[in-house]
Amino acid sequence: xxxxxxxxxxxxxxxxxxxxxxxxxxxxxxxxxxxxxxxxxxxxxxxxxxxxxxxxxxxxxxxxxxxxxxxxxxxxxxxxxxxxxxxxxxxxxxxxxxxxxxxxxxxxxxxxxxxxxxxxxxxxxxxxxxxxxxxxxxxxxxxxxxxxxxxxxxxxxxxxxxxxxxxxxxxxxxxxxxxxxxxxxxxxxxxxxxxxxxxxxxxxxxxxxxxxxxxxxxxxxxxxxxxxxxxxxxxxxxxxxxxx
Length: 244
Ligand code: 1GP
What we know:
single chain, alpha/beta, binds SN-glycerol-1-phosphate
């Protein structure tokens, strides 16, 4: 099954985001095993800035320890690895930095083609979380103000009209303030494509509210690095919202 088809499923889903240079090999193995046992839907791998050459090895360990599809969530053109299943081909549509809208894509397209990775056209939208995050700084772009749900909805609609297949709204890794349910509800009501939500999600209760508000896939990174066993609690919530 294509990875995009997995995102298109009507059920709510959970993605665990793994930063490939933050943890030890044993920790990658542990998190992948737990995610597999819990029934996690996707493992996202990437970061705004990687400082070691561990991407390929990290993915290999993840794949040795579970059968969950591994999806690259690249911060830049160096984060392409052929042993993943797919890559979010991110266009940063909340910003006005041409490199993040199309420039990096031109550079990376031939490598992605050669790799055989499935490229998933994704409209990536940063939402302000009260302070600069790694991704706003590294992308040299301004996030959408958190109280401007109309701007967020129009941006998502434009992305969908341009043919992007997913919309990913992100408050940024480690955000103090998550994206509001009100914004999620409003954006979800404006588009047909799946809505992915991440940034600063630290409890199953928050995840549940976001799923009920309209998120199709929830992405959690930091919180699981410190509390991998909580993956089970989040998956319980996903199943509950799905009526399972
Ligand atoms: C960041 O949406 C992801 O791009 C996940 O954020 O690490 O804060 O969970 P956290």
